[in-house]
Design a protein that fits this description.
By secondary structure, the protein is of the alpha/beta class. The chain has three domains: 93 residues, no CATH class; 273 residues, P-loop containing nucleotide triphosphate hydrolases (Rossmann fold, 3-Layer(aba) Sandwich); 159 residues, Rossmann fold (3-Layer(aba) Sandwich). The chain contains 26 helices and 14 strands. The strands form two sheets. The chain has an eight-stranded mixed β-sheet with strand order 1-8-2-7-6-3-5-4, with helices on both faces. One of its GO terms (cellular component) is nucleus. GO terms for molecular function: ATP binding; hydrolase activity; RNA binding; RNA helicase activity; zinc ion binding. Pfam families: DEAD, Helicase_C. It comes from Tieghemostelium lacteum (Slime mold).
Length: 650
């Protein structure tokens, strides 16, 4: 009997010991469950019950915040105390819960319910305040001007003067007459004392040999950007040129440079080691080479016509891949004009092969790329080599925040010439967007190549895809060439030349070929990968539909693309009156949300408002992917510099 009692006592002690040694986390979980069960459901209210409108907005957006058990426990205790102090009755709590559940149910059913006015106003005010704070932080930048001028606090207020003047009958036109001509050609010009638009090369006083050379190239009359841009530059004014790709921007800044160089050479011939008078910067070697070829054509046409009237002017192509030793003779004889990429030009300046003391003409082609983070520091250093005032020209198909800041800090009373909205696509391009799974893209590529006759240009995001597609098309017996950053200069030049001369049917390339390169006969551009930024998409499809011709651009998209760039693409297609695939229409976006907040879906004011940083139409400034990428890069650079890292290839 005693043995049985002792056995029961031992079992009871063992059970108590087992209960005593329950793991700590398990005991905490049990206590929390007990506490949660004791609370009335009406007391389980989020922080937004004191601010109910904000709660509803978050519920509509479907934002789910992951919380730990400890967070939820603290929230319950806080809400108990808050509700007592706020004096919220049970009826008010039930009403708020019903409204919240109604909004959640509507979201699940795909129905958008209008928010009350107070909530809408609060959210709009919050969004507007955040965007203003971001813009304020972006405005604190170092001006892109010469270090010497900044040190001496020199500020130029008057533009440079030139000897060129428009014909008297054009100068006598009224502002209303000039504005009528601009409207006729869809030109938007802004600034002080805008020079008049001139619709013919002859009236611009362009020399006859150059007009003849342009006619040989099939250019018989100026394009809209040339009608207004050439008079502005010939007058000596700083200029921002915004026009869709293929609109003739290159001629606008190369032709005046050649004429200025000829004029300066006639006044005072250049001697050994001097020059240049004019400088044009390009973001890629291929674009610089193409621009230099046009400069050579124009200057040669003048010299061949009359060498006494038009003296010979020498130009230099300064890009990577060309041996400097082969250009030593040019350095010694003196150079009138230079077309360069930033890295090679900076190398020449540091080695004192050239100097910019006489340079009064600076053109930045594809300025959105040059003033981007990739080249910004190089551009700053290049500007420090200039002496005195210069005429500065910016040309691009897009107008992001960086260009606006640069123009405000470095240009003197600039004239902005805009043909079409900045960042808009060329309307001569038919844009087709197709959802293609990643594994099916390379097979579907063959089908797309049959849409139009050659030549066809294929763009990829990375070099490996370029090489893979190149080998695949070779196996299919297609005449194809390829270029990317790892190719040698000779290979890149051969690829571009053979493609331009129609010796090859297909060119596969990275974005190195997307900006500025002129392939007038291309009928079809294929984006094998959707670029990560909408600006690159605009430049890519601009390789077709040039000089008034119609082209086709086919873009592959899939689930790997970011929603942000797809939203920008959606609004670009809508603006260009192109067919928008359902997969893009189904993506919710900031603009639709803002319209929901405003409760006025018929008003498209905010729908058309672009991001103030990158000019994208599918997102607001507070969600700009390019701004976030730049911010992360700056943080990474700062961290690297603090850890003693840094440096890299230029």
């Amino acid at each position: 009997m005693d043995a049985n009692n002792n056995k029961r006592d031992i079992n009871q002690i063992n059970e108590e010991e087992n209960q005593r040694w329950v793991p700590f986390k398990e005991r905490k979980l049990q206590k929390f469950k007990k506490l949660k069960a004791d609370n009335n459901e009406n007391e389980l209210v989020k922080d937004e019950q004191v601010q109910p409108q904000q709660s509803i907005v978050e519920a509509v957006e479907g934002e789910v915040v992951k919380k730990t058990l400890f967070d939820e426990k603290l929230e319950i205790l806080r809400n108990k105390h808050r509700l007592r102090r706020a004096g919220i009755t049970e009826e008010q709590q039930e009403q708020q819960e019903k409204q919240l559940q109604k909004q959640l149910q509507a979201q699940q059913d795909g129905i958008e319910l209008p928010l009350d006015d107070e909530s809408s106003d609060d959210e709009k005010t919050k969004m507007s305040k955040e965007e203003k704070e971001i813009l304020k932080s972006l405005s604190t930048f170092v001006p892109l001007v010469s270090v010497k001028d900044r040190a001496k606090s020199i500020v130029y207020t008057e533009p440079l003067k030139t000897t060129w003047t428009a014909p008297s009958y054009i100068r006598s036109r009224t502002d209303q007459e000039n504005e009528k001509i601009r409207r006729q050609y869809f030109i938007d010009a802004s600034g002080d004392n805008i020079p008049p638009p001139i619709p013919t090369f002859k009236e611009m006083k362009i020399p006859y040999p150059i007009i003849g050379q342009l006619e040989k190239k099939g250019i018989k009359k100026p394009t809209p950007v040339q009608i207004q841009g050439l008079p502005v530059i010939l007058s000596g004014r700083d200029m921002i040129g915004i026009a869709f790709t293929g609109s003739g921007k290159t001629l606008v800044f190369t032709l005046p440079m050649v004429l200025f160089a000829v004029e300066e050479e006639k006044k005072m011939p250049i001697i050994r080691g001097e020059g240049p008078f004019g400088l044009i910067l390009c973001p890629s070697r291929e674009l610089a080479k193409q621009t230099h070829e046009l400069v050579e054509e124009l200057s040669t046409a003048l010299e061949n016509y009359d060498s006494h009237r038009y003296p010979r002017v020498r130009s230099l192509l300064a890009i990577g891949g060309i041996d400097m030793r082969d250009q030593e003779e040019s350095f010694r004889r003196g150079i009138h004009m230079i077309v360069a990429t930033p890295g090679r030009l900076l190398d020449l300046l540091r080695k004192k092969k050239i100097n910019l003391s006489l340079c009064k003409y600076l053109g930045l082609d594809e300025a959105d790329r040059l003033i981007d983070s990739t080249f910004e520091e190089d551009i700053r250093e290049i500007l420090s080599f200039f002496d005195g005032q210069k005429q500065t020209l910016l040309f691009s198909a897009t107008m992001p925040k960086k260009i606006q800041d640069f123009a405000r800090s470095a240009l003197v009373s600039p004239i902005e010439v805009n043909v079409g909205r900045a960042g808009a696509a060329n309307l001569d391009v038919i844009q087709e967007v197709e959802f293609v799974k990643p594994e099916a893209k390379i097979v579907y590529l063959l089908e797309c190549l049959q849409k139009t006759p050659p030549p066809v240009l294929i763009f990829c995001e990375n070099k490996k895809d370029v090489d893979d597609i190149y080998e695949y098309l070779l196996l299919k017996s297609i005449e194809v060439v390829s270029i990317h950053g790892d190719k040698t200069q000779q290979e890149r030049e051969h690829a571009v030349k053979s493609f331009k001369n129609q010796e090859k049917d297909v060119l596969v390339a990275t974005d190195v070929a997307s900006k500025g390169l002129d392939f007038p006969d291309i009928q079809h551009v294929i984006n094998f990968d959707m670029p990560k930024e909408i600006e690159n998409y605009i430049h890519r499809i601009g390789r077709t539909g040039r000089r008034g011709k119609t082209g086709v651009a086919t873009t592959f998209i899939n689930k790997n693309n970011s929603e942000s760039v797809l939203l920008d693409l959606k609004y670009l297609l809508i603006e260009s009156k192109q067919r928008v695939p359902n997969v893009l229409l189904e993506i919710p976006d900031d603009n639709q949300y803002l319209l929901k907040l405003q409760n006025r879906a018929g008003d498209e004011t905010d729908l058309n408002k672009p991001c103030e940083y990158c000019d994208g139409r599918g997102h607001r400034l507070i969600n700009c992917p390019k701004l976030k990428k730049q911010s992360n890069q700056n943080k990474s650079n700062f961290s690297s510099s603090r850890m003693g890292g840094g440096g890299g290839d230029w």
